[in-house]
């Protein structure tokens, strides 16, 4: 999709001063605080890659995890690696940089990938809710409904819809005249800071973008809530307490991830952000874009015995077998 943004600077020739780069201020603080933040982000990024990478390897190598639920979880972990990589590497480089600059096209490329991957994550969470609904509400037909072909088709649709939904809106946003200043009080190129820097109002473009984002959020969260309402109704009809506990354990991890992700995202992009301070917007963005991909492997592995066993085999069993 980079061809959309290759010659963006040439398309803003009408502006008196053509912005060729933006300055990302990031988090405020002295050099010691910046070094601490850099070290913390490096650790979080490494743990995120390790945790999600371990889930991918466990799903691929353990035959017991070759089921639709874990197939979707493995693809979700793969998405999380790309999602966190759309922001953290640039944040780390920005902390060490003296100019803290990002090119015009680089800023809009980050904008595009950040929202496309975020949209794909919403769709993945909805698909995973559908999988849990089928597994608990229609257990006898689960294997015939959630076939490998359907799972691959659903995963492909998540990626395609996520990446095909934003090129046109972001392209039109990039056509707005940016004639200075070029300072973004954020650690990434986001909608609100970019619109604030445009020297011409664009209410239609802004409304289209926020309407699209809100529709994705509302339709996916409403589907997830509907699925879990029907699912919980079915769980309470299970006669044995052990069966109910197993069902709650299977769905609890997914609900925890949904709550963490949607809670912060909807505060940022659905509710009005005019009363939220800039620092709080940065913290909320940091939670859903960086901390959520870190917590996901912990949430899924701590609440799932099969995943814990598979991760133990991946991290320790193969090493033992190679040494024996």
From TrEMBL:
| GO MF term set | G protein-coupled receptor activity; olfactory receptor activity
G-protein coupled receptors family 1 profile domain: residues covered: 51-300
UniProt keyword list = Cell membrane, Disulfide bond, G-protein coupled receptor, Glycoprotein, Membrane, Olfaction, Receptor, Sensory transduction, Transducer, Transmembrane, Transmembrane helix
Question: According to its UniProt record, where is this protein located?
Answer: Cell membrane
TM helices/strands, residue ranges: 35-58, 70-88, 108-130, 150-172, 215-236, 248-271, 283-302
Its cellular-component GO annotations read: plasma membrane
As for membrane topology, the entry says: Multi-pass membrane protein
Function per UniProt: Putative odorant or sperm cell receptor.
Family membership noted in the UniProt record:
Belongs to the G-protein coupled receptor 1 family.
| The protein, known as | Olfactory receptor
Q: Which organism is it from?
A: Camelus ferus
